[in-house]
Amino acid sequence: MALFRISTKRVLEVQKISSTNLLRPLSDASTDLKKVLNEKVPQEQERVKAFRKSHGSTKVGDVTVDMMYGGMRGIKGLVWEPSVLDPEEGIRFRGKSIPECQKLLPKAPGGAEPLPEGLFWLLITGDVPTDAQVKAISQEWAARSSLPSHVVKTLNDLPKNIHPMTQFSAAITLLNSESEFVKAYGSGVHKSKYWESVYEDSMNLIAKLPGVAATIYRNTYKDGKGLGSVDSGKDWSWNFANMLGYDNPQFIELLRLYLTIHSDHEGGNVSAHTTHLVGSALSDPYLSFAAGMNGLAGPLHGLANQEVLVWLQKLRAKVGDNPSDEKLKDFIWSTLKSGQVVPGYGHAVLRKTDPRYTCQREFALKHLPEDSLFKLVSQVYKVVPPILLETGKVKNPWPNVDAHSGVLLQYYGMKEMNYYTVLFGVSRALGVLASLVWDRALGLPIERPKSLSTDLLIKAVKA
């Protein structure tokens, strides 16, 4: 078989074509998501089966020693259906860019930002949903949202000095007691039906996450008081904001945007890959997602937006709210020369300004253009990239999503930085659980790459 390589750009082009094909009208306008998937799964199973039969031995890339020691960066070794990250164009959800999703996905009455329910429908089916289909998901998640009493009791009994992400992971793990997949697997269900109970678990988990996250927030920061309730007539983000204790319509709009854009970033990032890996052992969605959240809690992943704010506070204390560009440059050079990085700048894959940063900036320009912290972030955006390019050591000098999200949350009164990663986790469930359903629908096996010691690697290279 001849060796050939598929570029990321070509993968994106193929995904766009596939997405266009997937956007054919359904045979009916069903608002039952599981019924829609029941129609799609057999078709996709046959498509993948035929593709593997004809191209199973085709090589799609090479692996270098640097890739192996560099965290497997750039190795093409995963199948991930919901999204693809292109270095130049940024994330595409089923072939659609963030601006396209903002335009095409249904919105709340009077709202301007896409509803996360619509993005989930897109991620799991490949179809842009109708207003009725999104409303059905909102109602279904509201109906599934109640928490088991033992989970609520555990959260209420936890010491309040335990990090919110630790509480979040623990609660998700405890929800495993409700797993439909565990019951189905124990009853001997055929593997071709695994996806159905994984779907049920995923829908239940997504529905319950706002309640878990809001309970953690109210317990940790508000003495356990003021936890709002779920309104079956409202959308997922509205209910989440209400449970958190926020009723500002702009904050609710921000939450809709935040939960949409943080949902997925293809399969190689730590939280996504971990969820996929643990799920490949047929751990249920609760255990798989809890493992992914333990990865998200790391400072090199989901904790990064908090680190951006800490750095901005140091910057603000040093140069004030309206510094000259020269003062700002001096502080940035001082940061770099001390061996530190400018948090929120650079990305493992992207080679341009993160589209997730851009849409948050547009939100700020619309709703809080005179906010002093936003103005400082904008000035940093102007000053930092040329400095990073001047060092000659940075491939991507542009800001990523973390460089902006914390500033918006601060503006609307959510100043508890330790909690921000929990919000990220609620959002990330949409992408990783949509993928987990397809992992089981396509019958993907347990993941088990081959590892080598340094001695064996040296021998292999010499050979």
From TrEMBL:
According to its UniProt record, which reaction does this protein catalyse?
Answer: oxaloacetate + acetyl-CoA + H2O = citrate + CoA + H(+)
Superkingdom as given in the UniProt entry: Eukaryota
Q: Which GO terms describe its biological process?
A: carbohydrate metabolic process; citrate metabolic process; tricarboxylic acid cycle
Active site, per annotation = H301, H347, D402
Entry's Gene Ontology molecular function annotations: citrate synthase activity
PROSITE patterns xrefs: CITRATE_SYNTHASE (PS00480)
Subcellular location per UniProt equals: Mitochondrion matrix
Q: Which pathway does it serve?
A: Carbohydrate metabolism; tricarboxylic acid cycle; isocitrate from oxaloacetate: step 1/2
Q: Where are the transmembrane segments?
A: none
Main localization is mitochondrion
- Supply the CDD domains for this chain: ScCit1-2_like
Q: Which UniProt keywords apply?
A: Transferase, Tricarboxylic acid cycle
Extract the coiled-coil ranges from the record: none
Cite the InterPro entries for this sequence.
Citrate_synth-like_lrg_a-sub (IPR016142), Citrate_synth-like_sm_a-sub (IPR016143), Citrate_synthase (IPR002020), Citrate_synthase_AS (IPR019810), Citrate_synthase_euk (IPR010109), Citrate_synthase_sf (IPR036969)
Q: Please give an example of a GO cellular component term from this record.
A: mitochondrial matrix
User: Quaternary structure per UniProt?
Assistant: Homodimer.
- Can you tell me which family this protein belongs to? Belongs to the citrate synthase family.
Q: What is this protein called?
A: Citrate synthase
Protein species of origin = Cephus cinctus (Wheat stem sawfly)
